[in-house]
Protein backbone atom coordinates (compact mmCIF):
# COMPACT_ATOMS: atom_id res chain seq x y z
CA UNK A 1 0.00 0.00 0.00
CA UNK A 2 1.14 3.53 -0.70
CA UNK A 3 3.08 5.51 1.88
CA UNK A 4 0.82 8.54 1.80
CA UNK A 5 -2.36 6.98 0.52
CA UNK A 6 -2.46 4.50 3.42
CA UNK A 7 -3.08 7.43 5.77
CA UNK A 8 -5.83 8.96 3.65
CA UNK A 9 -9.56 8.72 4.19
CA UNK A 10 -12.02 8.71 1.26
CA UNK A 11 -12.99 12.25 2.25
CA UNK A 12 -9.67 13.80 1.22
CA UNK A 13 -9.12 11.93 -2.06
CA UNK A 14 -10.43 13.55 -5.23
CA UNK A 15 -10.54 11.63 -8.51
CA UNK A 16 -10.71 14.18 -11.33
CA UNK A 17 -11.95 12.86 -14.69
CA UNK A 18 -10.78 16.05 -16.41
CA UNK A 19 -7.17 14.98 -15.84
CA UNK A 20 -7.85 11.77 -17.74
CA UNK A 21 -9.01 13.80 -20.72
CA UNK A 22 -5.70 15.67 -20.72
CA UNK A 23 -3.85 12.33 -20.77
CA UNK A 24 -5.99 11.25 -23.72
CA UNK A 25 -5.29 14.49 -25.58
CA UNK A 26 -1.55 13.96 -25.04
CA UNK A 27 -1.91 10.35 -26.27
CA UNK A 28 -0.44 9.03 -23.03
CA UNK A 29 -1.41 6.62 -20.28
CA UNK A 30 -0.32 6.90 -16.69
CA UNK A 31 -1.04 8.42 -13.31
CA UNK A 32 -0.93 11.84 -11.70
CA UNK A 33 -1.23 12.87 -8.07
CA UNK A 34 -1.25 16.27 -6.42
CA UNK A 35 -0.91 16.65 -2.65
CA UNK A 36 -1.86 19.90 -0.96
CA UNK A 37 0.42 20.40 2.02
CA UNK A 38 -1.38 21.11 5.26
CA UNK A 39 -4.75 19.67 4.31
CA UNK A 40 -3.33 16.43 2.81
CA UNK A 41 -5.99 16.59 0.11
CA UNK A 42 -5.06 14.32 -2.80
CA UNK A 43 -6.16 14.90 -6.37
CA UNK A 44 -5.46 11.68 -8.25
CA UNK A 45 -5.79 10.23 -11.73
CA UNK A 46 -5.47 6.42 -11.94
CA UNK A 47 -5.32 5.55 -8.25
CA UNK A 48 -4.36 1.89 -8.69
CA UNK A 49 -1.33 2.74 -10.81
CA UNK A 50 -0.28 5.52 -8.45
CA UNK A 51 -0.55 3.35 -5.37
CA UNK A 52 0.38 -0.16 -6.49
CA UNK A 53 2.52 -0.11 -9.66
CA UNK A 54 6.30 0.26 -9.49
CA UNK A 55 8.54 1.31 -12.38
CA UNK A 56 12.21 2.00 -13.02
CA UNK A 57 13.00 5.46 -11.61
CA UNK A 58 14.99 6.50 -14.70
CA UNK A 59 16.71 9.87 -14.26
CA UNK A 60 14.51 10.76 -11.29
CA UNK A 61 16.99 8.56 -9.40
CA UNK A 62 19.68 11.23 -9.91
CA UNK A 63 18.38 13.00 -6.81
CA UNK A 64 20.25 10.45 -4.67
CA UNK A 65 23.76 10.66 -6.18
CA UNK A 66 23.39 14.44 -6.42
CA UNK A 67 22.68 14.71 -2.70
CA UNK A 68 25.49 12.29 -1.83
CA UNK A 69 27.87 14.32 -3.99
CA UNK A 70 26.76 17.60 -2.43
CA UNK A 71 27.37 16.16 1.03
CA UNK A 72 30.84 15.00 0.00
CA UNK A 73 31.75 18.20 -1.85
CA UNK A 74 32.00 16.40 -5.20
CA UNK A 75 29.36 18.76 -6.56
CA UNK A 76 30.18 22.30 -5.49
CA UNK A 77 27.40 24.05 -3.61
CA UNK A 78 27.85 26.98 -5.99
CA UNK A 79 27.25 24.81 -9.06
CA UNK A 80 23.73 25.01 -10.50
CA UNK A 81 24.49 23.97 -14.07
CA UNK A 82 21.95 22.02 -16.11
CA UNK A 83 24.49 19.21 -16.35
CA UNK A 84 24.37 18.79 -12.57
CA UNK A 85 20.55 18.53 -12.71
CA UNK A 86 19.72 16.15 -15.57
CA UNK A 87 22.87 15.36 -17.49
CA UNK A 88 22.89 11.61 -18.18
CA UNK A 89 26.61 11.46 -18.96
CA UNK A 90 27.38 13.52 -15.86
CA UNK A 91 25.40 11.22 -13.57
CA UNK A 92 26.61 8.01 -15.17
CA UNK A 93 30.14 9.13 -14.34
CA UNK A 94 29.15 10.36 -10.87
CA UNK A 95 27.43 7.09 -9.92
CA UNK A 96 30.51 5.14 -11.01
CA UNK A 97 32.70 7.49 -8.98
CA UNK A 98 30.59 7.12 -5.85
CA UNK A 99 30.64 3.34 -6.20
CA UNK A 100 28.19 0.52 -5.63
CA UNK A 101 28.67 0.34 -1.85
CA UNK A 102 27.86 4.03 -1.29
CA UNK A 103 24.86 3.94 -3.62
CA UNK A 104 23.36 0.80 -2.07
CA UNK A 105 23.93 2.14 1.46
CA UNK A 106 21.94 5.26 0.57
CA UNK A 107 19.17 3.28 -1.15
CA UNK A 108 18.85 1.08 1.94
CA UNK A 109 18.95 4.01 4.37
CA UNK A 110 16.16 5.80 2.51
CA UNK A 111 14.18 2.57 1.90
CA UNK A 112 14.19 3.72 -1.71
CA UNK A 113 12.05 1.64 -4.03
CA UNK A 114 11.92 -2.12 -4.42
CA UNK A 115 14.15 -4.79 -5.89
CA UNK A 116 17.84 -5.52 -5.95
CA UNK A 117 20.27 -3.18 -7.68
CA UNK A 118 21.70 -5.01 -10.68
CA UNK A 119 25.45 -5.44 -11.11
CA UNK A 120 25.41 -3.01 -14.03
CA UNK A 121 26.28 0.34 -12.46
CA UNK A 122 25.41 2.12 -15.72
CA UNK A 123 21.86 0.77 -16.00
CA UNK A 124 20.32 -0.22 -12.65
CA UNK A 125 18.08 2.86 -12.41
CA UNK A 126 16.59 2.09 -15.82
CA UNK A 127 16.89 -1.72 -16.30
CA UNK A 128 13.89 -2.56 -14.05
CA UNK A 129 16.05 -4.15 -11.33
CA UNK A 130 15.21 -1.18 -9.09
CA UNK A 131 11.62 0.08 -9.16
CA UNK A 132 9.65 2.72 -7.30
CA UNK A 133 5.97 3.63 -6.99
CA UNK A 134 4.54 7.08 -7.65
CA UNK A 135 3.48 7.24 -4.01
CA UNK A 136 7.07 6.64 -2.88
CA UNK A 137 8.27 9.34 -5.27
CA UNK A 138 5.82 11.79 -3.75
CA UNK A 139 7.07 10.93 -0.27
CA UNK A 140 10.68 11.61 -1.25
CA UNK A 141 10.01 14.97 -2.89
CA UNK A 142 7.99 16.14 0.11
CA UNK A 143 10.81 15.17 2.48
CA UNK A 144 13.30 16.96 0.24
CA UNK A 145 11.22 20.14 0.31
CA UNK A 146 11.18 20.17 4.12
CA UNK A 147 14.84 19.05 4.26
CA UNK A 148 13.90 15.87 6.12
CA UNK A 149 16.10 13.42 4.20
CA UNK A 150 19.26 11.96 5.75
CA UNK A 151 21.53 14.43 3.96
CA UNK A 152 22.89 17.74 5.22
CA UNK A 153 20.22 20.43 5.22
CA UNK A 154 22.41 22.74 3.12
CA UNK A 155 22.77 19.96 0.52
CA UNK A 156 19.01 19.51 0.35
CA UNK A 157 18.50 23.27 0.08
CA UNK A 158 21.06 23.44 -2.71
CA UNK A 159 19.46 20.59 -4.61
CA UNK A 160 16.10 22.33 -4.31
CA UNK A 161 17.64 25.38 -6.00
CA UNK A 162 19.10 23.14 -8.72
CA UNK A 163 15.71 21.66 -9.68
CA UNK A 164 13.89 25.00 -9.76
CA UNK A 165 12.75 25.38 -13.38
CA UNK A 166 10.50 28.44 -13.37
CA UNK A 167 10.16 31.38 -11.00
CA UNK A 168 8.09 34.52 -11.36
CA UNK A 169 5.80 36.72 -9.31
CA UNK A 170 2.94 34.21 -9.57
CA UNK A 171 4.59 30.86 -8.83
CA UNK A 172 7.71 28.73 -8.56
CA UNK A 173 7.86 25.37 -10.34
CA UNK A 174 10.47 22.77 -9.39
CA UNK A 175 10.81 19.23 -10.69
CA UNK A 176 13.01 16.25 -11.55
CA UNK A 177 12.38 14.59 -14.92
CA UNK A 178 13.47 11.29 -16.40
CA UNK A 179 12.48 9.59 -19.67
CA UNK A 180 13.28 6.33 -21.46
CA UNK A 181 13.32 6.58 -25.26
CA UNK A 182 14.91 3.16 -25.89
CA UNK A 183 11.74 1.13 -26.44
CA UNK A 184 7.96 1.49 -26.44
CA UNK A 185 6.01 2.16 -24.38
CA UNK A 186 8.23 5.13 -23.62
CA UNK A 187 8.17 5.98 -19.92
CA UNK A 188 8.57 9.31 -18.14
CA UNK A 189 8.62 10.50 -14.54
CA UNK A 190 8.18 14.11 -13.44
CA UNK A 191 8.37 14.60 -9.68
CA UNK A 192 8.26 17.99 -8.00
CA UNK A 193 6.23 20.78 -6.48
CA UNK A 194 4.63 24.08 -7.34
CA UNK A 195 4.66 26.96 -4.87
CA UNK A 196 2.08 29.74 -4.86
CA UNK A 197 1.71 32.30 -2.07
CA UNK A 198 4.57 30.51 -0.27
CA UNK A 199 2.48 27.33 -0.10
CA UNK A 200 3.78 24.05 -1.63
CA UNK A 201 1.76 21.52 -3.60
CA UNK A 202 3.58 18.27 -4.39
CA UNK A 203 3.01 16.29 -7.58
CA UNK A 204 4.11 13.17 -9.41
CA UNK A 205 3.44 12.40 -13.06
CA UNK A 206 4.17 8.92 -14.46
CA UNK A 207 3.40 8.23 -18.12
CA UNK A 208 3.71 5.78 -21.00
CA UNK A 209 3.63 6.91 -24.62
CA UNK A 210 3.79 5.03 -27.91
CA UNK A 211 5.94 7.73 -29.47
CA UNK A 212 9.33 8.71 -28.09
CA UNK A 213 9.52 11.90 -30.13
CA UNK A 214 9.99 15.03 -27.96
CA UNK A 215 9.07 12.88 -24.98
CA UNK A 216 10.31 15.22 -22.24
CA UNK A 217 8.80 18.29 -23.88
CA UNK A 218 5.40 16.60 -24.29
CA UNK A 219 5.37 15.44 -20.68
CA UNK A 220 6.30 18.88 -19.40
CA UNK A 221 3.44 20.30 -21.45
CA UNK A 222 1.06 17.67 -20.04
CA UNK A 223 2.18 18.56 -16.52
CA UNK A 224 1.57 22.25 -17.14
CA UNK A 225 -1.83 21.56 -18.71
CA UNK A 226 -2.84 19.57 -15.63
CA UNK A 227 -1.58 22.26 -13.26
CA UNK A 228 -3.43 24.93 -15.23
CA UNK A 229 -6.59 22.83 -15.17
CA UNK A 230 -6.19 22.58 -11.39
CA UNK A 231 -5.92 26.37 -11.09
CA UNK A 232 -2.15 26.75 -10.81
CA UNK A 233 0.39 28.88 -12.73
CA UNK A 234 -2.02 31.82 -12.83
CA UNK A 235 -1.18 33.54 -9.55
CA UNK A 236 -4.73 33.09 -8.28
CA UNK A 237 -4.31 30.35 -5.65
Q: Could you characterize what this model shows?
A:
With 237 residues, this protein is an alpha+beta fold. It has one domain (5-229): Beta-lactamase (3-Layer(aba) Sandwich). It has helices at residues 17-25, 47-52, 63-72, 83-86, 88-98, 100-110, 134-145, 153-162, 215-229, and strands at residues 13-15, 28-36, 41-45, 54-55, 114-115, 130-133, 164-167, 172-179, 186-196, 199-209. α3 (63-72) crosses α5 and α3 crosses α8. The protein starts with 12 loop residues before the first strand and ends in an 8-residue tail after the last helix. 39% of the residues are buried.
Give a short summary of the structure.
This protein has 9 helices and 10 strands.
Name the descriptors.
237 residues; alpha+beta; Beta-lactamase; seven-stranded mixed sheet; three-stranded antiparallel sheet; 37% helix; 25% strand; globular
Can you tell me the residue ranges where pLDDT is under 50 for at least 5 consecutive residues? none
Q: How much helicity do the residues have?
A: 25-40%
Number of domains: 1
Q: How would a crystallographer describe the biggest sheet?
A: 7 strands, mixed
CATH superfamily: DD-peptidase/beta-lactamase superfamily
Tell me which CATH architecture applies here.
3-Layer(aba) Sandwich
What is the average per-residue confidence, as pLDDT, rounded to a whole number? Answer: 91
H/E element sequence: EHEEHEHHHHEEHHEEEEH
Q: What's the number of helices?
A: 9
Terminal residue distance: 31 Å
Structural class: alpha+beta
Amino acid sequence: MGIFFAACSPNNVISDAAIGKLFDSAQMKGSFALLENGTDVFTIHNLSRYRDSAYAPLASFYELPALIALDKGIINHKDSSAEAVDGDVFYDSLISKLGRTEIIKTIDSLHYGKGIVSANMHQFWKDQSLKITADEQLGLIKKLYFRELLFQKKSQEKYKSMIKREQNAAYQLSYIIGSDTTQAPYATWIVGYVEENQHPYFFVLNTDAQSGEQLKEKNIQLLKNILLQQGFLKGTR
